[in-house]
Amino acid sequence: MKARYVFYAVMAASLFVACAGAPKSIPEDLSARELVQRAQEATDAYNYQAATAYYKALGERFASDPASKATADYEIAFIAYKQNHYAAAKEGFEALLARYAGPDGASLPPRYAILSKKVLESIAEKTKSDPKK
User: Whole-model pTM?
Assistant: First the structure.
C-alpha cells in the first residue's frame, strides 16, 4: 500500500517537472556562467524547453564571445539529439562545424568540434535504416 503512494508521488512530481516548460522571463543580469548553470539544472530535470531557452539566451546575450556562442549552439543541438530530433540536431552540429572551418574557427573551444563530429556519427548510425529521421 505504501509503495503505491510513493509511486503516485513520484509520477506526480515527474509530471510537474515535465510540464514546467520554459521560464517566462530570464533575468537580464545573469552571467554566462549562471545561464549555463540554469540550463544544466533544467536539462538534469529533463526540462529541455527551459534548457533550450537558457542556452538561446546565452547565445544571444553573449554572441560576441565565441566560447559562449559555441557552447550555446552545441548544447541546443545536443538537446535536439537527446530528444531524437535528429534532423534538427544534425543541422545544428553541421552549422557549428562550419564555424570551425571559417576564419574564426581557431578562437572556438576545440571540444565542441570533437563532440559534434562524434554525435554526427551517432546520428548517421541511428538514421541509417530510416533516413527520414
Answer: 0.81
